[in-house]
């Protein structure tokens, strides 16, 4: 059942709308463009598998002090990190005021000393920062998919420059997009090929990871240990992540497509 079903005008304009069903609240732009899903009984629980992979980047930066997020959606990552990372500051760039206006429905905490949400173009915003963040997470979609500004070499260079030494970038993309391999290669070029990509079990999402500096120099055993810690902390599942990450890193270092 729809909690706030879309009007034809909303869909045609690419505006977000809400659907409530089976205890879940979903933010969408169309039936094929789902932005975020929330467990109504536990708003900070990470429901979608791709969000588990995004959180896995914390295995490389376990004491992250400052995280940049480009794209708010229903605030799944924001809420989970606000709950489980009390020492971390979260800064969010979201282009759509309509998406931000729904933050209350998704129980996104109010802005405070640990959280700031800015209504701004994420590509312009991240370019204003230099060595500022331990993690940069990109999850920016609209009804048309990935915004061109978030897939350009210039943007990926800006994300690299916004990271502190040892920082990590993670980007969610639609794995079946014909341009996914090209975007992954652009990220690899911008990060001196210190990159890996892991796909969700359903094959729908690919999360691309990249590092500034030596963050990825963990053994598979150490990475598996770190991901088990994150599984316990966030209540998520990351089966085979360490194996898949290291195998992908080797392939991409050699220029083999993800």
Written account of the structure:
The chain is of the alpha/beta class. The protein is built from 9 helices and 12 strands. About 3% of the residues have low confidence. A hairpin with a 2-residue loop joins strand 8 and strand 9. It has one domain: Vaccinia Virus protein VP39 (Rossmann fold).
State the main characteristics.
single chain, 258 residues, alpha/beta, Rossmann fold, 7-stranded mixed sheet, 9 helices
Return the domain count: 1
Cα-to-Cα separation, first versus last residue: 38 Å
What share of the residues lie within helices?
A: 25-40%
The major β-sheet equals: 7 strands, mixed
Q: Provide the CATH top-level class.
A: Alpha Beta
CATH hierarchy: architecture:
3-Layer(aba) Sandwich
**Lateral arrangement of strands in the main beta sheet:** 6-5-4-7-10-12-11
Report the structural category: alpha/beta
Compute the average pLDDT: 92
Could you state the order of secondary-structure elements as H and E? HEEEHEHEHEHEEEHEHEEHH
**Number of H/I helices:** 9
Quick overview:
The chain is of the alpha/beta class. The protein is built from 9 helices and 12 strands.
Question: Secondary-structure map with pairings?
Answer:
Layout (H helix, E strand, L loop, with lengths): L7 H6 L3 E5 L2 E7 L2 E7 L9 H8 L9 E5 L5 H9 L4 E6 L2 H5 L13 E5 L2 H5 L6 E6 L2 E2 L2 E2 L6 H10 E12 L5 H11 L4 E5 L5 E7 L8 H15 L6 H13 L5
Parallel strand pairs: 4-5, 4-7, 5-6, 7-10
Antiparallel strand pairs: 1-2, 2-3, 8-9, 10-12, 11-12
Helix pairs in contact: 6-7, 8-9
């Amino acid at each position: 059942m729809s909690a706030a079903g879309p009007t034809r005008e909303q869909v045609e304009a690419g505006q977000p709308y809400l659907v409530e069903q089976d205890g879940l609240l979903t933010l969408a732009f169309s039936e094929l463009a789902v932005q975020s899903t929330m467990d109504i009984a536990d708003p900070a629980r990470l429901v979608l598998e791709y969000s588990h992979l995004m959180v896995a980047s914390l295995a490389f930066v376990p004491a992250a002090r400052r995280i940049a997020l480009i794209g708010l959606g229903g605030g799944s990552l924001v809420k989970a990190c606000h709950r489980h990372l009390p020492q971390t500051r979260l800064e969010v760039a979201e282009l759509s005021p309509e998406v931000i206006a729904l933050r209350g429905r998704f129980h996104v905490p109010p802005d405070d000393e640990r959280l700031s949400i800015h209504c701004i173009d994420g590509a312009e915003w991240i370019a204003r920062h230099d060595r500022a963040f331990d993690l940069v997470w990109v999850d920016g979609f609209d009804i048309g998919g990935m915004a061109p500004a978030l897939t350009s070499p210039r943007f990926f260079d800006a994300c690299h420059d916004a990271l502190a030494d040892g920082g990590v970038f993670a980007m969610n993309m639609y794995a079946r997009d014909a341009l996914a391999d090209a975007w992954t290669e652009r990220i690899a070029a911008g990060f001196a090929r210190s990159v890996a990509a892991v796909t969700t079990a359903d094959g729908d999402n690919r999360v691309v990871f990249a590092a500034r500096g030596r963050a990825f120099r963990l053994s598979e055993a150490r990475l598996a240990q770190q991901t088990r810690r994150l599984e316990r902390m966030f209540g998520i599942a990351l089966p085979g992540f360490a194996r898949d990450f290291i195998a992908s890193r080797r392939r991409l270092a050699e220029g083999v497509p993800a």
